[in-house]
Amino acid sequence: MLYLIGLLSAAHALKVLDVGPPRTGTQSMHAAMQILGMEALHSGYHQSERKTACKYLFGNGTLENVWATLSKYDAAMDEPFHLLYEEVMETFPEAKFVLQVKDPEAWYENYLAMERGLFPNGDPLKFAPSWQKKCNAVGVWGCNWHTPTASSKKACMDNFKRHIARVQEVIPAHRLLVYDWADGWAALSHFLQLPVPEGLFPSVDLPGDFTIPGHLAEHVASLR
C-alpha cells in the first residue's frame, strides 16, 4: 500500500477518464486532450497498455498494476479503461469523466463495418485466452462481429445502453460531461476549466482507414 501511495503521488494524477465505449469518438477526444495539453492514452493506439487493465478486469491482475500503467498519463480512453470509472472515482477524487453518446444502432453498424474491414478473414481473437477476448472489440458485452446473430446483436446493443445508463447513474453530475459533438470546444474546455483552443474540434478516425497497411499490421500483431 505504501508503494502504491508513493507511486500515485510521484506520478500524473489522472485528470480525465473517457467513459465512452470504443467507436464513440474516442480518437477525436484523444486528439482534443492532446491539444488541451494533456498526456493522453488511447489504448487503441497503444495496445500493450491495455494488458494490466484487461488482466485486472477479466483475469488475475491487480489494480496496483493498472495505476502503474496510467501513472504516465493525464487522460485515458478506449477499452477497457472506459469500464474503470468506479475505481478511478475512488482513487482520483479530482478526476473528471467524459461520455460521448451515440445512437446504439449507428454505433453497432459502425463497429461491425470496422471489424469486417480490418479483419476480412475472420476473428483474429478466435483462439485467444478468455480475458483477451473479453477485453477487445467489446467482447465482454457479447458482441460478435464475425459470426453475428440476432441475439448477439441484441446483447451487444443492450449492454452498450446499460453502460451509458449506469455511467450516468454512478458518476456525480458535477464530475461527468455528457458530450455533444455539436458543442465543439466550449463545453469541454469549460468543464475542464481550461482555455478554449483556436480552430475546429478535431475529427479523427484512423482505424476507419483500412488502406493504411502499417496501422493494420500493428493492430493485428498487438492482439497475438
UniProtKB/TrEMBL annotation:
Superkingdom of this protein's organism: Eukaryota
Gene3D superfamilies reported for this sequence: P-loop containing nucleotide triphosphate hydrolases
Pfam families linked to this entry: Sulfotransfer_4
PANTHER family with a match to the protein in the record: P-LOOP CONTAINING NUCLEOSIDE TRIPHOSPHATE HYDROLASE PROTEIN (PTHR36978:SF4), P-LOOP CONTAINING NUCLEOTIDE TRIPHOSPHATE HYDROLASE (PTHR36978)
Protein name per the record: Sulfotransferase
Organism per entry: Effrenium voratum
Classification of source organism: Eukaryota, Sar, Alveolata, Dinophyceae, Suessiales
